[in-house]
């Protein structure tokens, strides 16, 4: 009797062959809502497609999943195409998805919003990353189609507003399969172009969302974001907005407006230069006038103090001291010379030869010693004279006292020079630079000679 029973494997295999042999299940189009969506590390997608009354498990393998250009999510309505078959190991039938498109709002719009959200989270559109447009660009690069109306509008406007500005055209397809690679390549090429480009205008004329779609592709958006040159996006008309507009440093509503933003009107520049020149001239006149007034004040103050007269008087005092010191030294030398001559005469008066010889040797020694001593005295006097001169030129008694020194006097105005000159309980006057202090001696101590 058991021969009438089938194994689970045989039954499932039979059902699977039925599914695979049915031509209506080999290419099926289904509309539904995604739930239980999971993306495996392998790239395979697992999900459930459902409507109000039923649901079916579905799988989309990595090879097919790589072809979709949006991110499936739970709750999203989609249009799927594929086949229905049995997964024998699990004992259930499921939908093998070969193609998937968003349903309702349109595939391009969903793709636009998802990429915008992703790039926003990555900071591609952050305002802090925007570069500042130069005030006076010398060289402007234009990335657009070389034959469209946009390039004519941009070049005409730039030449009219700023004829001296150099224009460098980087031709690129702005729609179609080649547009994405060509636009991103030209942006990178402009970054290493020599001579250096100051501003880039990237854009095209108006068109449908499909025509403008290249400027929504991540490769183009990232090329704009990574550019070290400030970029003005000028895609389509004012109502058209692309992801390139968000990534660019500045967005212009039209290509013509982009050219107007990039350069200032030449007449405006000349007016600004003339205004600045006048302001600088007025500022310089004011500064010169103030400096002349200050110079006059300093000149009058210098004349009042008569520094030249003070210097001349000090020079004269120094000369007087030098002359007095020279006279003193000459007198000392004359006296010693006269004394030596007397000694010599007395020696000559002694008749014994040995005494004469001894006296002569003694005289020679004394003469040499005296000469040495006199020379040393002369050097010491000259050194002392130099110190006196320096003190005369550099200090006065009041200035010495200002540095912390003082004079001590008794009540009878006698200068105190030694501890022995004062007594306990005696009142003394201490002169400082700014006044007199009266003090009473409470104790005294002789300095140690050790």
UniProtKB/TrEMBL annotation:
One GO process term, biological-process aspect: DNA catabolic process
InterPro entries, sorted: Exonuc_VII_L (IPR003753), Exonuc_VII_lsu_C (IPR020579), OB-fold_nuc-bd_dom (IPR025824)
Reactions catalysed according to its record: Exonucleolytic cleavage in either 5'- to 3'- or 3'- to 5'-direction to yield nucleoside 5'-phosphates
Location(s), subcellular: Cytoplasm
GO molecular function: exodeoxyribonuclease VII activity; nucleic acid binding
Keywords: Coiled coil, Cytoplasm, Exonuclease, Hydrolase, Nuclease
Subunit structure: Heterooligomer composed of large and small subunits.
Matches recorded under HAMAP family: Exonuc_7_L (MF_00378)
Name listed for the protein in its UniProt record: Exodeoxyribonuclease 7 large subunit
Lineage: Bacteria, Bacillati, Bacillota, Bacilli, Bacillales
Originating gene: xseA
């Amino acid at each position: 009797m058991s021969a009438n029973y089938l194994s689970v494997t045989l039954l499932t295999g039979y059902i699977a062959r039925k599914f695979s042999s049915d031509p209506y299940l080999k290419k099926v189009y289904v509309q539904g809502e995604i739930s239980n969506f999971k993306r495996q590390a392998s790239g395979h997608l697992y999900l459930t497609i459902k409507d109000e009354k039923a649901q079916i498990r579905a799988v989309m393998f990595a090879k097919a999943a790589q072809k979709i250009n949006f991110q499936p999510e739970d709750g999203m309505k989609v249009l799927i195409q594929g086949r229905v078959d049995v997964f024998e190991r699990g004992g259930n039938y499921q939908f093998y998805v070969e193609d998937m498109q968003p349903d309702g709002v349109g595939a391009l719009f969903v793709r636009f919003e998802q990429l915008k959200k992703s790039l926003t989270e990555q900071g591609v559109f952050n305002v802090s990353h925007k570069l500042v447009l130069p005030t006076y660009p010398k060289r402007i690069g234009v990335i657009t189609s070389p034959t469209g109306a946009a390039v004519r509008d941009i070049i005409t406007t730039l030449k009219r507003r700023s004829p001296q500005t150099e224009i460098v055209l980087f031709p690129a397809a702005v729609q179609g399969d080649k547009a994405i690679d060509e636009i991103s390549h030209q942006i990178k090429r402009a970054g290493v172009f020599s001579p250096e480009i100051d501003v880039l205008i990237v854009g095209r004329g108006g068109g449908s969302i499909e025509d403008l779609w290249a400027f929504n592709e991540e490769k183009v958006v990232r090329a704009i974001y990574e550019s070290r040159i400030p970029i003005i996006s000028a895609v389509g008309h004012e109502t058209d907005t692309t992801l390139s507009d968000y990534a660019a440093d500045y967005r212009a509503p039209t290509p013509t407006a982009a050219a107007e933003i990039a350069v200032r009107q030449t007449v405006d520049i000349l007016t600004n230069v003339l205004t600045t020149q006048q302001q600088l001239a007025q500022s310089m006149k004011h500064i010169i006038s103030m400096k002349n007034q200050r110079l006059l004040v300093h000149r009058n103050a210098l004349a009042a103090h008569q520094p030249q007269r003070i210097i001349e008087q000090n020079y004269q005092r120094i000369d007087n001291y030098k002359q007095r010191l020279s006279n003193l030294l000459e007198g000392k030398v004359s006296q010693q010379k006269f004394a030596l001559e007397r000694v010599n005469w007395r020696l000559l008066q002694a008749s014994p030869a040995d005494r004469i010889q001894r006296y002569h040797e003694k005289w020679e020694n004394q003469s040499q010693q005296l000469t040495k001593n006199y020379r040393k005295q002369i050097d010491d006097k000259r050194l002392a004279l130099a110190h006196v001169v320096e003190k005369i030129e550099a200090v006065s008694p009041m200035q010495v006292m200002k540095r912390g020194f003082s004079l001590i006097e008794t009540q009878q105005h006698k200068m105190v020079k030694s501890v022995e000159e004062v007594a306990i309980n005696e009142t003394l006057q201490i002169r400082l630079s700014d006044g007199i202090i009266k003090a009473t001696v409470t104790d005294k101590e002789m300095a140690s000679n050790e």
